[in-house]
Design goal:
The chain is an alpha+beta fold. Helices cover 36% and strands 30% of the residues. It has one domain: Translation Initiation Factor IF3. The longest helix is centred in the middle third of the chain and has 13 residues. The chain is globular, with a radius of gyration of 11 Å. The protein starts with a strand and ends with a strand.
């Protein structure tokens, strides 16, 4: 599957959530890969996706997190 990357590693909230929301709006129906470096950013992005009823999977990849929307 082709993903649109949203790299929010190293950014502080609310910027990662805002960038993810903008990517969702700009790319309706497309799959996103959100890359985060902090656990709290992962949690906040997941909350956004749940509130927008977007299906996703989330995994820890070494010291980083990868969230894939469906």
């Amino acid at each position: 599957m082709d993903y649109i990357d949203v790299d929010v590693r190293g950014l502080s909230c609310p910027e990662p959530v805002m960038l993810t929301a903008a990517a969702l709006k700009k790319n309706p129906g497309k799959a996103l890969r959100i890359l985060a470096s902090e656990a709290h950013v992962r949690t906040n992005v997941e909350k956004l996706l749940k509130s927008k009823k977007v299906d996703f999977t989330s995994a820890e990849k070494g010291n980083e997190f990868e969230i894939l929307t469906k």
